[in-house]
Amino acid sequence: MKKLVIILIIILSPLFWRGAGGEAFAQQRSVSGYVKDAKNGEMLIGVSVYEKGTTNGVSTNAYGFYSLVLPAGKHTVMVSYLGYATQSMDIELSDKGVTKNFELSDADNSLNEVVISSEREDHNVKSVEMSVAKLDIKQINRIPALLGEVDIIRAIQLLPGVTTMGEGSSGVNVRGGNIDQNLILLDEAPVYNASHLFGFFSIFNPDAVKDVKLIKGGIPSQYGGRLSAILDIRMKEGNSKNLQITGGIGTIFSRLSIEGPLIKNKMSFIVAARRSYIDILAKPILKKKEPQLGDLVFYFYDLTAKLNYRVNEKNNLFLSGYLGQDKFGAGFSFKYGNATTSLRWNHLFNDKLFLNTTAFYSNYNYGLGFTNAGTNQSFNWTSNIINYSVKPDFTYYLNNKNTMHFGGQGIMLQFEPGQAVVTASDGSTTNISVPNKYGLESALYVDDEIKINSRSNIQFGIRYSLFDYMGPGNRYDYYDTIPNNAKRLKDTVAYGNGKSIAHYGNWEPRLSYKLDLTDNSSFKASYNRTAQYLMLVSNTAASTPLDIWTPVTNNIKPQIADQVAAGYFKNLRDNMFESSVEVYYKNLQNQLDYIDNANLLLNKYYESQLLQGRGKAYGAEFYFKKTKGKLNGWISYTYSRTLRQINGLSNNQWYPSKYDRPNNLAVVLNYDFNKRWNVSCNFVYISGTPNTFPDSKIEIQGYTVNYNTSNMRNNFRNPAYNRLDFSATYNFKKNEKRRWQSSIVFSVYNAYDRKNAFAVYFQATPNQASQTQAIKYSVVGTVIPAITYNFKF
Amino acid sequence: MKKITYHLSLIICSLLLLSSCTSVIQVTVPTGSQLVVVDAFLDNSSNPQTVRLTFNANYFSNVPTPPVLGAIVTLNDLNNAKTYSFTPDGNGNYIYTPGINDSMAQEHHKYQLNISYNGNTYNALSTMNRTMAVDNITFRVSAEDYANNYPLSDTTNPRKFFPYVHAKDSAGPISDYYWLKVFNNGAFYNQPAQLIVFQDGGYQGDNGDSLIAPFAFQNLTNSNNPLYRNDVCMVQIYSINSNTFEFLTQMKTQMTNSQAGLFAVTPQNVKTNIQQISGTQQAIGWFNMGMVSSKSVIAY
Questions:
Q1: Cβ <8 Å between B21 and A778
Q2: Share of chain A above pLDDT 90, in %
Q3: Cβ separation A697–B190 shorter than 8 A
Q4: CB-based contact (8 Å) between A380 and chain B?
Q5: Secondary structure letter of residue A153 according to DSSP
Q6: Is the peptide bond before A472 cis (omega within 30 degrees of 0)?
Q7: Angle A19-A20-A24 from CA coordinates, rounded to 5°
Q8: Do B140 and B231 reside in the same domain of the chain?
Q9: Where are the domains of chain A?
């Protein structure tokens, strides 16, 4: 019954939208078009286009498109964007809509005839969006970086509500969620592992990235499939005016990107590549220190490319691709990497209806193997997750008070968790592969953003998501057992190609509301439900690239999260300062955990080792940012908890999840001395990760083994994490006649040599079996200085 | 598998300018509740059979685990209804000594261990599985010694010997599980990394070395603990069942976790097969009946 009512509301909702518009529809005209960067022709995302002196306005979408609906007559339209000079233009709307494209120039080298204003730099306050963090690449470039390499994921870690398990762990934890609960999109194609070198760097080449947006709450209905957050990364289209080469030479790797027009203002491209060379530098030293490592291989590379073609005023095509791989070896080989391709087609049906259709392919692979020297013995394991998807997304600009999004998505998923072959010394092989799994994830959604009056906006939507776990494959049925024991296999049922083994569907309502309190402050609230059908299976201290992705099955239920959030946003001193306070509470269902001593690796019965239960997460996030002036930067502080209750674990009581870190403080400061020199520093303090400490030792057969008699999981915390980094950038004097620009960045990571704990382990003191000790494992155990040289021409 | 992840971690740490990766830290954890820990790995030999009962001790106290005194320990052979009583030695050991050329245990019999202590009673079950014979033990000299070619008479640079075991897995469709133990001059070599349990001589053996019968085990001892000339090396192959195999694997994982670096799992409790029949004091630990085969060879 409930479902029927919701369906009815969706069907009838267009009637409400027209009603909400208020004005007679026939008299509405629109001005629409694209907004670009005057310097390089890049489409600009999130630019405010509005009627002067009113609150009628829209923002450009992810493709730089806007459509502003106004009554017939004369208007002054303003176009403004942070860091760019605001433009204004008088237009007359008679009986037809007008197409108007804008090109914005940088604020600091703007021309006289353009009005400079900071009037609309208050997007954070005025927009209905909340729990959203945006970082522009200029800002990211200034944060002191590990080994001098600017990194998007590492920059995001300095924002409220975001933590990681430390250096050496892949991914980020957002508002108490696991790393697999974030949907990472690179030009709309999902990326399953965004890390190079186990998380020291991310796979996104900053020279090829245009826009980064992290959505932690109030998630619009067009996004789905993950519980916690959406990280939407958009690549540059490539300079459509001039050929440009950008690059950098760093301590650990070098970058080079080339972009430029193929057909001026119609077709442009960008190709960006990175390759590490630390292996070449470290090999001699390492070989001496660790001779057993033998022939050493370790490097990573990535290649990012994009082509865009403006077919005509109504059609644009974008083709983007990413290919990257990490390789390690020393008598064994280990590799992992992603490949993604996405093709997008923007089509303008008319000045009010915009369609983007994305088709993508994504493949995450990893493999492990070794050969015993001098024998035939070997072991080879490869694993893949392959996705194919189509996703049409419509935006309908009904009138100046009402914008609607609707669309759908279908993703074919193929999991190849382990193709593994063991070769014995006599040459015989044993196949210990884990069978493939197949799934189809699909969704339909609609949402509508309505301006209720001059002070308040509402955005509401619904998403219906479906998942089919399909054959060919086996359904495994297990006996019930005492929780925290492996379940015994009862029955195996084989399913043919395309037959549904398990099927799940979920309604996901989404709602956001904004109310302006004063000219420069607002209150916002949101609710969203999200469902997740794929998850990462991992019982190591932090996630590694070896972890296995699994779809929901007959034994694993979809994870569901309900989040409510509320926030107060205020800007001060003409938007020089931005501040916000947000609180959230999440109720989580079917969270995954593992029985004690779970055996997950290459185990086709891994479902027998899993447990699911309740979770909750709550927190308060404080953010204060100075956006302008010689001294700028931000302070972010989060207090948050994330807890689990799973029958069979921790005496059935609530326990902290492994990414529960109550206090999280980040301070980022930049200071511009002059045009040549600027310096930056950042400081982070995060509570230690929870850990299960043994309170006892027991003796079995002369071995001393750790034991926790309380049986409580995560009963203690590892030492807190804190770190200070510095950097200084010197910009070489620019020769006005030449385009060559260059800078040199000096950086110091972990300035006071803190040995932060990645994990704490317990073991018998070597050669003294009866004595025991706690071992702190620090991945970074020293100060790391670095120099990077960047250039552009 | 472990070896790979360890080496991977090493490489990754080395990437960051060879910074050192581990340090010992001081941790204060209050002592937990008192448990009875049962350590009962019995065999079919005519040697004295010991069930050791201890209490747990604070993990960081560095005091030995205290013995459990005043318990009554018996073993029932459920196939022939025989009962064996174990005598306390006053130090937590409860011992049954079979007569010469006698044994309390027989292949395929099912056994029940009974313990009563301070108003609590516990029991545990185990079936005696077959074992395989140790064919031979050979030795290899370390690569360094081989290169340096020190004379046998050189006492300042004695040659280091590393044992290899040769054996053949018993035929048949059933899975056999074994624990391979090394003794140097009678002392059990209890390095956690060299706790070797394996299934059918299969790939789950030591450190991923793929071994199909007939096989040879390498890495029985590590390079810090070599044997020297005239040392007596004894190797035992002790049969275990699949649950004991899992238990010992869990023990090894917990004890060698710090070597796994980035791939380490969170500390967890090992399982137990001791059942509480009455009383309130919890007992943990393990009971296994196994057949044992062994061979001693002098390193030369």
A1: yes
A2: 37
A3: no
A4: no
A5: H
A6: yes
A7: 60
A8: yes
A9: 2-119, 132-792
Closest chain A residue to B41, measured at CA: A701
In terms of residue numbers, what domain contains B97?
A: 2-14+31-128+256-290
Q: What is the pLDDT of residues A716-770, one digit of tens each?
A: 999 999 999 989 989 888 777 777 888 898 988 888 988 888 888 888 877 676 6
The CB density around residue A250, as the number of other CB atoms within 10 Å, is 23
Q: Which two tokens stand for residue A429?
A: 């092989």
User: Would you tell me which residues 115-174 of chain B have a C-beta closer than 8 angstroms to some C-beta of chain A?
Assistant: none
State which H helix or E strand residue B83 sits in: strand B82-88
The first and second tokens of residue A756, run together, are 């932060």
Average pLDDT, chain B: 80
The percent of residues in chain A predicted with pLDDT above 70, rounded, is 90
CATH architecture of A132-792: Beta Barrel (2.40)
Query: Closest-CA residue in chain B for A432?
Result: B203
Residues of B in contact with A777 (CB under 8 A): 21-22, 258, 261, 264
Residue A31 has pLDDT above 50, yes or no: yes
Q: Which residues between 44 and 73 in chain B have a beta carbon less than 8 angstroms from any beta carbon of chain A? A: 52, 54, 56-60, 62, 64-65
The answer to whether A781 contacts B224, with C-beta atoms less than 8 Å apart, is: no
Q: Which residues of A touch B196 (CB under 8 A)?
A: none
pTM for this prediction: 0.86
Is the complex ipTM more than 0.85? Answer: yes
Do B16 and A784 lie within an 8 Å CB cutoff?
yes
A481 has a chain B CB within 8 A of its CB? no
Mutation target vs A (from B5, B6, B11, B36; most A CBs, 10 A cutoff): B11
Q: How confident is the model at residue B203 (pLDDT cuts 50, 70, 90)?
A: very low
CA dist., res. A758 & res. B16, Å (int)? 14
Of B15, B41, B209, the CB nearest to A282: B15
Residue in B12, B17, B22 closest to A784 by CB: B17
B236 shares its domain with B140: yes
Is the CA virtual torsion B292, B298, B299, B300 positive or negative? negative
B6, B104: one domain? yes
Helix locations, chain B, DSSP H: 2-15, 143-148, 242-255
Q: Say how far apart CA B196 and CA B182 lie, in whole Å.
A: 9
Residues B200/B175, Cβ–Cβ less than 8 Å? yes
Burial classification of residue A376, based on how many CB atoms lie within 10 Å of its CB (0-12 exposed, 13-18 middle, 19 or more buried):
middle
Q: Which two tokens stand for residue B123?
A: 């029991």
**E strands, A63-138, where?**
65-71, 73-80, 87-93, 98-99, 102-104, 132-136
For the domain with range A2-119, which CATH number is right: 3.30.1130.10, 2.60.40.1120, 3.10.20.600, 3.60.40.10? 2.60.40.1120
**With left for phi above 0 and alpha for psi between -120 and 50, is residue A93 left, alpha or beta?**
beta
Rounded-to-10 torsion of CA B23, B24, B26, B28: 110
